[in-house]
Design brief:
Elements (H helix, E strand, L loop, with lengths): L9 E6 L5 E5 H8 L5 H8 L18 E2 L1 H9 L1
Antiparallel strand pairs: 1-2, 1-3
């Protein structure tokens, strides 16, 4: 799935590891990461300044950035 396929008007992003979070309009998110960018790659772009994203940490302590609304959508299926 690519960014243009994101099914909601607001793109919420959060990290269960460190508690960081953000919210973008879909238009703003498209401009920030590129419409054709795969959703997992878009997360890496948004989290590029996260010290846990840099690697070198234990697997359980790495950046856990994700799309919480997508998780809820999957749970409903």
């Amino acid at each position: 799935m690519r960014v243009w396929d994101y099914p909601f008007d607001t793109v919420r992003i959060d990290c269960e590891t460190c508690g960081r979070f953000g919210k973008y309009s879909k238009k703003q998110f498209l401009e920030l990461v590129g419409a054709g960018t795969p959703l997992p790659a878009a997360l890496r772009i948004i989290a590029k300044d996260c010290p846990r994203e840099q690697g070198g940490l234990a697997l359980h302590d790495r950046c856990g950035v994700g799309y919480p609304d997508m998780s809820k959508l999957i749970d409903e299926i």
